[in-house]
Specification:
- The structure is a single chain.
- With 411 residues, this protein is an alpha/beta fold.
- The chain has one domain (61-371): Spore Coat Polysaccharide Biosynthesis Protein SpsA, Chain A.
- It is 43% helix and 19% strand.
- The strands form 4 sheets. Strands 1, 2, 3, 6, 7, 8, 9, 10, 11 and 13 form a 10-stranded mixed beta sheet that branches.
- β2, α3 (107-120) and β3 (125-130) form a beta-alpha-beta unit.
- α2 (71-89) packs parallel to α3.
- The longest helix is centred in the N-terminal third of the chain and has 48 residues, at 2-49.
- InterPro entries: Mannosyltransferase_CMT1.
Length: 411
């Protein structure tokens, strides 16, 4: 009996020892696979950073900016970078259109300086400095469109249609010059960001210039990207996280890991280049907000997302996020995503951390509930307005945004 008992104990210990060895082997192999993936991604990002864009060439670029209280970044970075960019493109191939309204800092003074610098260099332009403030806008009597009844028992001016109208006003010189037989190849929308001419060069060269739209990545507090309102992955979902690798979609993540132009359904992210052709079509592509009747159900969508949903070229030529073009809302943010001494802008630690957080977020979270809330409200709207439709459903979120004297507000 004692011998049998000893044999059984020996087998159990051997079994436990075998399981422990197997577990250790699995852990070691998993670590090797994980490290191989991390190093492979780091190497791919480093190689992608070495790619050089094609020359600007003879393409004509229409540059658009809207500004409000941006004096500091205009004077410290933006004006200098824009002057360099227009010089690189060439006076004969560029036009600058800027709209500013209601700033209470000296944004107007900064833009007057820009106007003088562009004139000295022979750069064609139109710069509108409007004295109308947000307070002036919201103090007007409500009109037929763009106003909404809110939970504050007031009829208030919606933010998105207001911004869409400003962008459309800034686009007007494009149409005026079309009448004079002056056509442009690309539209470049520039936010109040820190950028360099080389960044724009890379952006315009995305996919060798073959795209409906190509966007940068924008950062305010790296490593988190900034523009969550407009960015949607290749399947139309919001980013699963604000840090790399951002996306839920496998297709978007695969391209991003290789440092390649990343297919998305929508983006803006500080700077976006668009094929100019749809802006010349009849009817022409314009910025808009969702209908007021849909917005009244506590639904909103960015004009910078809806423009891609409305663009007929999005489905054929694609909307792309270029991870090799990174801009910042401050000099510090820009430097953080352009580290010196390394081709890869993402450290190994960021890659390792991001991969696992993204994996866990995809496993244990879903966009289903948020998207279902939006879908039910859109379905209700369609039932109440049978002849209406909204093509930009992936842009929609459960929010209501109105203009305020000092900016804008959620209600």
């Amino acid at each position: 009996m004692e011998v049998i008992t000893l044999l059984r104990l020996g087998r159990r210990r051997l079994f436990r020892g075998t399981n422990l060895r197997r577990l250790l082997i699995v852990l070691v192999l998993s670590m090797i696979v994980a490290m191989t993936e991390i190093l492979s991604i780091h190497s791919a990002l480093s190689r992608a950073a070495l790619d050089r864009p094609v020359n600007f060439g003879p393409q004509r670029v229409f540059i658009v900016g809207i500004h409000w209280n941006n004096e500091q970044i205009l004077r410290s970075h933006w004006i200098h970078a824009l002057i360099a960019l227009t010089g690189d493109i060439g006076p004969e191939n560029v036009f600058v259109s800027i709209y500013e309204s209601g700033s209470w800092d000296d944004t107007k003074g900064a833009l007057r300086l820009l106007d003088n610098l562009l004139e000295e260099r022979g750069i064609p332009r139109r710069i509108i400095l409007d004295n109308t403030t947000h307070l002036d806008e919201i103090s007007k009597s409500p009109s037929v469109r763009g106003w909404i009844k809110t939970s504050r028992s007031k009829t208030e001016l919606r933010r998105i249609p207001y911004l869409a109208q400003l962008r459309n006003v800034a686009m007007q010189p494009l149409y005026d010059m079309q009448n004079a037989a002056l056509a442009f190849d690309k539209i470049l929308f520039l936010n109040d960001v820190v950028f360099e001419s080389s960044d724009i060069h890379k952006l315009l060269s995305t996919n060798d210039g073959d795209y409906a739209a190509a966007c940068a990545l924008d950062f305010s507090k790296p490593p988190a990207f900034y523009d969550t309102f407009a960015l949607r992955d290749s399947e139309g979902h919001e980013a699963v996280m604000q840090e790399w690798p951002y996306f839920r979609s496998w297709t978007s993540r695969k391209a991003l890991k290789n440092g390649q132009p990343t297919p998305v359904t929508s983006c803006w992210n500080g700077v976006v280049a668009m094929n100019a052709e749809p802006f010349y079509r009849v009817p022409r592509l314009v910025f808009r907000g969702v209908p007021d009747s849909l917005a009244s159900l506590h639904i909103e969508g960015s004009e910078c997302c809806l423009i891609h949903a409305d663009n007929p070229y999005s489905s054929t030529d694609g909307v792309w996020l270029n991870p090799n073009v990174r801009v910042g809302y401050s000099s510090h943010a820009y430097r953080e995503v352009h580290p010196e001494g390394s081709n890869s802008w993402i450290p190994l630690y960021w890659i390792a951390r991001g991969l696992w957080i993204n994996r866990l977020m995809r496993w244990f979270s879903s966009p289903w509930l948020k998207e279902l809330v939006v879908k039910r409200r859109v379905d209700q709207w369609v039932r109440e307005h049978p002849n209406s439709q909204e093509v930009g459903t992936s842009c929609l979120i459960n929010e209501m945004q109105v203009l305020a004297a000092n900016g804008w507000a959620h209600v």
